Sequence to fold (132 residues):
Amino acid sequence: MKTPSISSHLLVAIWATLLLSLSSSGFAVAQDAAGDEAQDIASEATEEVVDVPATGLNRPMNGKNLQTFEKDLEIVKGEITEPEFRTLMNAIGYLRVYDLAARGDKEKVYQNLDGKTPKEIMKKVKWRTGDN
Fold:
């Protein structure tokens, strides 16, 4: 059996280095192309986002005063089911009794709920809303 000479080892090393450098640069180009494509898709998706108004259980309530909150309640009533609305009203009633900061004052309860959605109001009193 013949032992390989130093030149054959050198030739194998050069060959391996050449293959590695070619495959690495091709891989980097492929990665760049994939990264550019992903960035294009992300920017297209961002452009397609439409500001959809919140409705139903996801509508933020305006608790600045009694009139605006009660107006929002009427709007929400038309957008959700009767059982959901009854649960919401029960939650608000519960807060009128047990929210110590409001001390039974309806306007203070509404002010404390300003910006919260009906779903958040019901979760505040730990009642089931269908996605707990």
Observations:
- The first helix runs from residue 6 to 48.
- DSSP finds five helices and no strands in the chain.
- The radius of gyration is 32 Å.
- The mean pLDDT is 77.
